[in-house]
Amino acid sequence: MGQWKFHTPNGVTDLLPAGCRNKRQIEQSVRLMFEQRGYQEIETPSMEFFDVYAANTGAVPQEELFKFFDEQGRI
Q1: What percent of the chain has pLDDT over 70?
Q2: Is 22 within a domain?
Q3: According to DSSP H, which parts of 1-74 are helical?
Q4: Of 12, 20, 62, 74, which alpha carbon lies 20 to 30 A from 47's?
């Protein structure tokens, strides 16, 4: 893992302050537009248990999943 210490995984990126401000402004505009049309915001988990995707349904290839391990090495 040492060689990847300063790299982000494929599909994600760091945002610097100017990019963060721009993203927040866009999010706020979109949020306001949806609220004005009667939609309500929901929030879903950022992570799921591995078992949800381990069934090999084909939705997400297992090799493309990010896995987190506890101190005992369990997923």
Answers
A1: 88
A2: yes
A3: 17-36, 51-54
A4: 20
Task: Return the number of other C-beta atoms located less than 10 Å from residue 4's C-beta.
Answer: 8
Q: What is the CA radius of gyration of the chain?
A: 18
Is 30 inside a domain boundary?
Answer: yes
Q: One-letter amino acid identity for 20?
A: C
Helix (H, G, I), strand (E, B) or coil at 40: coil
User: Is position 23 within any domain?
Assistant: yes
User: Could you tell me if residue 51 is inside a domain?
Assistant: yes
Backbone angles phi, psi at 37, to 5 degrees: -100, 10
**Beta carbons within 8 Å of 54's beta carbon, 6+ residues apart:** 62
| Number of independent structural domains in the chain | 1
Quote the pTM value: 0.61
* Full residue range of the structural domain in which residue 45 is found: 13-64
pLDDT value of residue 58: 66
